[in-house]
Fold:
Amino acid sequence: MKVVKVKDYDEMSDMACSFLIEKIERLQDPVLGLATGSTPEGLYKRLIEKYNDRKVSFEKVSTFNLDEYVGVAKDDPHSYHYYMKDKFFQHIDISMDRVNVPSGMAEDLQLQCEEYEKRMVDAGQVDIQVLGIGVNGHIGFNEPGTSFFSRTHIVDLEESTRKANARYFDSIDDVPTQAITMGIETIMDSKEILLLVSGAEKGRALARLLNDESEITEEFPASILKRHERVTIIADWEALNG
Ligand code: F6R
Structure:
């Protein structure tokens, strides 16, 4: 894992933006794996700015998002469909038929998981997967204890994850209890991974990831990234010293 140390959230977002633009320019049909949450918001803002300045086009880009809440409709402002459209897709020239976000409203959720996997294979797999990290070390919504062999699946969200995400809802009781997420093995199938870490509250998780090279355990999902050949972590001062 290559660790890039930056000053703060802005510098992390600038660097992540340059990193993705370089891939988009170099690849024939770039397939991006995308995350939601606070961490990549600055990245999406910068990519939109670059698009407005005609520095990048997303015409040939396909995307696969990591996850979505179960039972939340696409047009609900709490859904990750809505987040992605609102914060990124509607501002750029991406073709919406190349955009993939799992549906948490599918009648047959198991089938939806299998279809999502198939779509990724058909697209030639994710070229570069953007990840954030949970305070408990989750990646995607793969909570501690999730099998390293998991593919896209339905998960019960941990209390700590629901608490962390309650800021987007009126109260913690409104935070969904389940999500659909790419599995750990699905994430590991991406050709390259970009993990973004910002803020003191991520300090413990980041320290655990970086300080003990030998610890690879399902109790700390992000630890699997040590087995991937192409991982770049961009971390800011607060996360590195938090
Ligand atoms: C989001 C996702 C999650 C977040 C993580 C960090 O699609 O899969 O793993 O990346 O929970 O969230 P933030 O960035 O809000 O701290």
Q: What stands out?
A: The pocket of fructose -6-phosphate is lined by residues 35-39, 66-67, 132-134, 138-141 (CB under 6 Å). The CA atoms of residues 116 and 122 lie 10 Å apart. The chain is about 30% helix and 15% strand.
